[in-house]
Specification:
Elements (H helix, E strand, L loop, with lengths): L4 E3 L5 E3 L3 E6 L2 E3 L5 E3 L4 E8 L5 E4 L5 E4 L5 E2 L4 E3 L2 E5 L4
Antiparallel strand pairs: 1-2, 3-6, 3-11, 4-5, 4-10, 6-7, 7-8, 9-10
Length: 92
């Protein structure tokens, strides 16, 4: 059973169809210190939260994408798992 709302912070609640700006997220750091983004960035529409608390967004073309919203950690692959940052985009 998916949820059509996601409480990002005490002041920010996303509902199905809300516009949001996504930044941050997982990245891989090379040996010479270069960071390679592994997550999403840009403007999306909030879709839903699934039964495993994964946040899904929809692109302008209707494609569903998954956002990492878990705790900061270093994965076995060397990827720095950082949660995405979300900002609500005002209608206008």
């Amino acid at each position: 059973m998916s949820q059509k709302e996601y409480r990002y912070s005490p002041r920010v609640l996303f509902r199905e169809g809300d516009k949001m700006h996504v930044s941050g997220g997982p990245y891989y750091e090379t040996q010479d210190g270069k960071k390679i983004k592994m997550g999403l960035s840009g403007d999306y529409l909030f879709s839903h939260v699934d039964e495993d608390d994964n946040v899904w967004v929809r692109t302008k073309k209707g494609v569903l994408r998954l956002l990492y919203m878990g705790e900061s950690r270093l994965a076995e692959t060397g990827t720095h798992m950082e949660p995405h940052k979300l900002r609500k985009v005002r209608k206008g």
